[in-house]
């Protein structure tokens, strides 16, 4: 008995490191580093505000919170309170 070849589906794969070498369309977009820069800036600001929260400097925490967009402040407050509570203290914001 002969095996039938199915041509119903054709899958195309590419290797990310060879993206520029493969002609035709690509499945992997070019890197956009602007989002990475924003993420790193926010990450560093979060580390600073967390240090202030853990040391108990509430005024510095409030000042740093104002540097974040308003839609993120509520979540940041919850996260900071949980972080401080994990060390057995209470953060009053």
**What sort of overall outline do the alpha carbons produce when their principal axes are compared?**
elongated
Distance between the termini: 76 Å
Number of strands: 0
Helix content: 40-55%
Strand-pairing-aware structural class: mainly alpha
Please state roughly what percent of the residues sit in beta strands, choosing from under 5%, 5-15%, 15-25%, 25-35%, 35-45% or over 45%.
under 5%
- H/E topology pattern: HHH
Main sheet makeup: none
Number of helices: 3
The mean pLDDT is 80
Task: Break the fold down into its secondary structure elements and pairings.
Elements: H1 33-55, H2 58-65, H3 70-85
What would you note in describing this structure?
There is one protein chain. This protein is mostly helical. The chain has a domain at 31-85. Helices cover 51% and strands 0% of the residues. It is built from 3 helices and no strands. It has helices spanning 33-55, 58-65, 70-85. Helix 1 packs antiparallel against helix 2 and helix 1 (33-55) crosses helix 3 (70-85). The longest helix has 23 residues, at 33-55. The relative contact order is 0.10. The model has no long low-confidence stretch (mean pLDDT 80).
Protein traits:
mainly alpha; 0% strand; 93 residues; 51% helix
What's a quick, concise take on this entry?
By secondary structure, the chain is mainly α. Helices cover 51% and strands 0% of the residues. The chain is built from three helices and no strands.
């Amino acid at each position: 008995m002969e095996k039938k070849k199915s041509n119903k589906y054709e899958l195309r794969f590419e290797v990310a490191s060879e993206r520029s070498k493969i002609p035709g369309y690509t499945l992997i977009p070019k890197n956009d580093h602007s989002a990475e820069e924003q993420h790193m800036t926010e990450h560093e600001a979060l580390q600073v505000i967390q240090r202030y929260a853990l040391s108990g400097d509430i005024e510095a925490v409030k000042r740093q919170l104002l540097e974040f967009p308003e839609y993120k402040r509520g979540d940041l407050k919850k996260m900071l309170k949980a972080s401080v509570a994990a060390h057995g203290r209470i953060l009053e914001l």
